[in-house]
Design a protein that fits this description.
Shape: elongated
Number of domains: 1
Number of helices: 5
Order of helices and strands: HEHEHEEEEHH
Helix content: 25-40%
């Protein structure tokens, strides 16, 4: 590869969005970590896709791959300019590695399981959060108050964070109650409408015989 082509391929405008799929081989992850250390300040969106085997968790390679992924994420967070992260995590079950990601505005994580740690609460710039998989919430977990969008697609619907369980509205009104509310609202609306006044009709005049 010529130096001119390499320089053209690293133009900041071409590095805004990065998508990377990794497996059991450590070499690509190590190359990504080194590349992010050099060019991470230009990356705004990062997508990481875990293509490792489902049974890798029982393999000795698990710790090495997980460590390499954490190194990549640390390098991406270091410049403080990453805004969007989408990650499919099979090996990083915890989310403590999110602590330095202060610049994130949009975060999507998938994991089975995925341990949602209090580190997410410290992401004060986060506006959109989507969590998928078998979610497990740490004790005392709180969502960031900056959120304007929250999506939870979890395998176990019985476990919900206390913050959501306490604040989510109930839309389970019976149909008869909804109909009654509608009728009362309609009657109130009709009662407040101004009444139209009908013009007075002229009295008929009867001509008297001459």
């Amino acid at each position: 590869m010529s130096k001119r082509f390499a320089a053209a391929a690293c133009i900041p405008e071409l590095l805004r969005q990065v998508s990377f799929e990794y497996g059991e081989n450590l070499a690509p992850l190590q190359s990504l970590a080194a590349w992010l250390a050099r060019h991470g300040q230009h990356v705004r969106t990062l997508a990481l896709w875990d293509a490792t085997a489902d049974d890798l968790a029982a393999n000795a390679v698990n710790a090495s791959v997980a460590s390499a992924v954490t190194t990549c994420l640390t390098a991406a967070f270091a410049p403080g300019r990453l805004e969007v992260l989408e990650a499919d995590m099979k090996l990083l079950a915890h989310t403590d590695w999110l602590a330095p990601a202060r610049s994130l505005r949009d975060l999507t994580l998938t994991g089975r399981p995925l341990h949602v740690s209090p580190a997410i609460a410290g992401l004060t710039a986060l506006q959109s959060l989507e969590l998928r998989g078998r979610l497990q919430y740490a004790a005392g977990f709180q969502f960031p108050t900056s959120l304007t969008r929250l999506s939870l697609a979890q395998d176990d619907l019985h476990e919900m964070p206390p913050q959501v369980s306490a604040e989510r509205p109930c839309f389970c009104r019976p149909p008869t109650t909804i109909l009654l509310i509608f009728l009362v609202s309609l009657l109130f609306l009709l009662a407040t409408l101004p009444r139209a006044s009908c013009p007075a009709l002229p009295h008929p005049t009867v001509a008297s015989p001459s």
